[in-house]
Amino acid sequence: MPARSHPDPNRPPRSQPAVDAGRAARCTEAIRDIAEDFVVRAEELLHQTHNPDTPATDLVVTVAELGRLTEEATAALVVRQRSQGEPLKELTPALGLTEDRLRKKYHPQAVDLRLASRSRPRRELPGSRTPRTPPARRARRTGSGCANPASAWPAP
Fold first, then answer.
1. Rounded-to-integer distance, Cα 16 and Cα 12, Å
2. pLDDT, tens digit, for every residue of 98-124?
């Protein structure tokens, strides 16, 4: 087994990192989409936790979806970093993985395929939700419902 992770031992390693501006742009767009999906799911979780009757299974499903979105975003960020020719070393402290492990775990072509075929979570139209408890009642019970009164997000 070769000591390095390069697939062909007879081929010299690259002198510079591979730069792929198109892939970097696709990853950036995917990260934006994932962020929007994350907000939808995070708001769903917030609303679910304000209702004491929400089953734990509903909460776990939402938390699991947030975990999947986090993994997708991480993959897109790692591939974007590589595609921009930036060192993966900058990401290792936050992710707790070595550069070599990031390279192996997030292969650019595989991440590209996953991002191209990802399905967006079900989005509900504003006002179409039927909450289990009326928002006014929930607001009285939990206060304003917003940790930061200056927040731009409406209270649940």
1. 12
2. 999 999 999 999 999 999 998 765 555
